[in-house]
């Protein structure tokens, strides 16, 4: 038997929904749980050739099950003794329904421990069963939409097979010519001779203590 079956029937286990530190265990296990898996696809209409389907990967799984909140504890079907009042339990599910954060759905003794959104919660009151509340739940598995960053190790491995484009910004340089001055270069390269001091600040080590003594052939970094 696989870890997650499309249908789970008659197995002793606990069904729990967790919202951060809030944990809610269903007092009565469902007789059946369904997990629906579908593959996404796009249909293209081509003239004279008809329709073609192109697969787009697995879609979000949908999990559904039905059960009820009993008014009175009955050891023959309740999973624990201190069961919540049915209306309180129903309100907890309603809180989960409007939550904008993903919940965690857990079935003990299985590998089912997945982040989900509760997307549908329907309740039913049946005549002759005063106080009991029946419900149907639908959940959809949640996927993080953020793109994961590559670890340093992974990036190193990728670099062995792929040439990575260097996006680091590089400053423009200027080769000093005979007759040049910093103010002349600033006028030519930066549009204003008054910006000569910006060039000097970036190239003090190359020029030296006197900004007026630049030499032909010196490579100056531009702001």
TrEMBL record:
Report the superkingdom from the record: Bacteria
Q: Which Pfam families match?
A: LysM (PF01476)
What CDD domains does the annotation carry? Answer: LysM
Q: Where is the LysM domain?
A: 172-222
The cross-references to SMART domains, in alphabetical order and at most eight, read: LysM
Q: Sorted alphabetically, which Gene3D superfamilies does this protein's record hold?
A: LysM domain
Protein name per the record = LysM repeat protein
């Amino acid at each position: 038997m696989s870890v997650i079956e499309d249908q789970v029937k008659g197995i002793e286990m606990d069904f729990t929904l967790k919202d951060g530190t809030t944990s809610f265990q269903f007092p009565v296990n469902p007789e059946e749980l369904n997990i629906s898996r579908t593959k996404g696809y796009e249909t293209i209409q081509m003239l004279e050739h008809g329709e073609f389907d192109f697969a787009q990967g697995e879609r979000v799984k949908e999990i559904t099950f039905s059960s009820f909140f009993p008014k009175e504890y009955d050891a023959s079907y309740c999973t624990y003794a201190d069961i919540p009042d049915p209306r309180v339990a129903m309100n907890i599910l309603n809180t989960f329904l409007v939550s904008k954060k993903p919940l965690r759905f857990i079935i003990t003794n299985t590998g089912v421990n997945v982040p989900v959104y509760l997307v549908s919660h329907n309740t039913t009151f049946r005549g002759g069963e005063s106080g009991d509340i029946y419900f149907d739940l639908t959940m959809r598995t949640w996927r993080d939409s953020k793109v994961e960053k590559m670890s340093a190790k992974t990036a190193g491995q990728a670099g062995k097979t792929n040439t990575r484009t260097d996006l680091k910004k590089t400053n423009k340089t200027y080769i000093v010519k005979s007759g040049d001055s910093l103010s002349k270069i600033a006028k030519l390269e930066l549009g204003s001779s008054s910006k000569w001091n910006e060039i000097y600040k970036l190239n003090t080590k190359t020029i030296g203590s006197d900004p007026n003594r630049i030499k032909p052939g010196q490579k100056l970094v531009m702001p």
